[in-house]
Design goal:
alpha+beta; Heat Shock Protein 90; 2 domains; nine-stranded mixed beta sheet; three-stranded antiparallel beta sheet; 8 helices; elongated
Length: 317
């Protein structure tokens, strides 16, 4: 038996832990983990849109196997950070748990990992380039496998604001670095549905294709797509929105199908395993339908104590 002593206790610095155990951060090094890198960068851009600071996100599968994600958000701050002594771009991309989502004033809602996602992608990338536009100026910095490879430099800009991240997954971590255009396309389309009016473009250089997703009706448009091949009961679909400290959107349709489907999201992140938000929605619908039946006609004897059927529902909370 090997001896367990103080010498066996390792202290990993910086992003070494991510490279040593990537599965702890992205779920594995297969296709799921590979695409998780895209979702982490994408969700940071989408969070800018969720908070009203971004109206466009552009995603490109580049011919060399890297991925580019550009948004029209506020742009990452570039000043020296008082804690690390490094510029803020380097601080965010080279340190776990460094980000603006711990402060409710900067982000009221957020779907991306708080201070983890960007750094994890950097750690698992052979190369990463970050460009930021703020106050009419553009800045650029390169990274290699989680470490800075150049200083933050001012370069010619467009006068707009936003952040661009280009990364190439590390061949030492991922044996297969082939991205699925279909998988990315579907994720981008769903994000566009969830944030009404957000324009998302998807370009695949290898296929020489460009697609644009924008749905002014938001989840109402999403629901219409989901029930397109089903027969709806009258006065459908139903949409409700509430916004205060908490924002809730629900789109729902009753169909002639005997099965039901619920899609739920929190801050644009899918919740396929449900949760308290979905349970509350389901129970609320059940109580409302039973109360309506009892008020209108009285609950038939055969339905007492049973659960009414619900069909073709899509909700976002």
């Amino acid at each position: 038996m090997s001896e367990y002593t103080v010498k066996t206790i390792q202290v990993l610095k910086g992003l070494e832990a991510v490279r040593k155990r990537p599965g702890m951060y992205i779920g594995g090094t297969g296709p799921e983990g590979l695409h998780q890198l895209v979702w982490e960068v994408l969700d940071n851009s989408v969070d800018e849109a969720l908070n009203g600071h971004c109206d466009r996100v552009d995603v490109i599968l580049l011919a060399d196997g890297s991925v580019s994600v550009t948004d029209t958000g506020r742009g990452i701050p570039i000043e020296k950070h008082p804690t690390t002594g490094k510029n803020t771009v380097e601080t965010i991309f080279c340190n776990l748990h460094a980000g603006g989502k711990f402060d409710d004033d900067a982000y009221k809602v957020a779907g991306g990992l708080h201070g983890v996602g960007a750094a994890v992608v950097n750690a698992l990338s052979e190369k990463m380039v970050v460009e930021v536009e703020r106050k009419g100026l553009r800045y650029r910095q390169e990274f290699r496998r989680g470490k800075s490879a150049s200083p933050l430099q001012q370069v010619p800009g467009s006068g707009h604001t936003g952040t661009k991240v280009v990364f190439l997954p590390d061949s030492k971590i991922f044996l297969d670095r082939t991205f699925s255009a279909d998988l990315i396309r579907e994720r981008l389309r769903t994000k566009a549905f969830l944030i009404a009016g957000l324009t998302i473009t998807f370009a695949d250089e290898a296929q020489n294709t460009v697609e644009t997703f924008c749905y002014p009706g938001g989840i109402s448009d999403f629901l219409e797509k989901l029930v397109r091949d089903r027969t709806l009961i009258d006065a459908q679909p139903f949409y409700y929105s509430y916004k205060n400290d908490l924002q809730v959107e629900i789109a729902m349709a009753w169909t002639e199908q005997t099965s039901h489907r619920i899609l739920s999201f929190v801050n644009s992140i899918p919740t396929p395993n449900g949760g308290t938000h979905e349970t509350a929605f389901r129970n609320g619908i059940t109580r409302a339908v039973r109360a309506y039946i009892e008020k209108r006609n009285g609950l038939p004897k055969g339905l007492r104590g049973s659960q009414p059927r619900t069909c073709g529902r899509a909700c976002r909370q």
